[in-house]
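FOLDING PROBLEM:
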Amino acid sequence: MRSAVARLIRSSSAETSRLSSSPVLLKTGNVFFSNATPSDPKNIEEPFKVEEAETVKVTPPSPDKLLVLGGSGFVGSHICKEALDSGFVVSSLNRSGKPSISESWADKVIWNQGNLLEPASFKDAMDDVSAVISCVGGFGSNSFMYKINGTANINAIRAAAEKGVKRFVYVSAADFGLVNYLLKGYYEGKRAAEAELLSKFTYGGVILRPGFIHGTRQVGSVKIPLGLVGAPMQMVLQNAQPLARLPLVGPLLTPPVSVASVAKVAVRAATDPVFPPGIVDVHGIMRYSEQN
């Protein structure tokens, strides 16, 4: 029994001696040292260092570039300002190029000259564009109205699709019953452009259908208030949605909407990837404009 205990003590002492003589790495800061006693002082190894990871600077993505067709007009100018205020790069295509607008925001827009009826004249304006917003439209003879409201926008939609633009927002117009017949070319052109948009931009095409748009319009250096009638009408008619479903009365009760609301929703529809595609009527425009 005593011999067994003696052997156990000798074994434990030997193990302790072996462990105490084993080298151990000691860390001080980012430098590691060994506690091993070198047999030759001349062969002392230099401590090895652990290099810290290099900080990688990631360049933030550049802001989306929006192309506003008809950016010098009443609705288009407000859309340009809304997009600039939201931090986007804004370019615009007009037949005359840069307009004579004295407001400071106009200097921040990249103005392009081109004619939507001549696709070759505006092809380069679509380069590096993430979304297009079209406010192009006009009145005149039926053939002229169809050409401006329909053909011009169809050309723009096709060009944007060919360039790989992600989203396209078209500011169209609400139905007004009898008015649709009286302005046949206007509405037929609008609806033809809408059909083309839904065909080419199934998941990224948004159609806004406002009624009367009120607000302040800049004509040269003069601001013309268009809200003196429109704003009160909007307050009265925005709650008349049930009556708006009536075939004869409904179109007459379509509430006006502010140009600021149209601009806000147009920019959101062009830049928010989860904004649902399809048609947004005047009530939808007012509802979306109230959201943050």
About this structure: The longest helix spans residues 142-162. Residues 224-241, 243-250 have pLDDT under 50 and may be disordered.
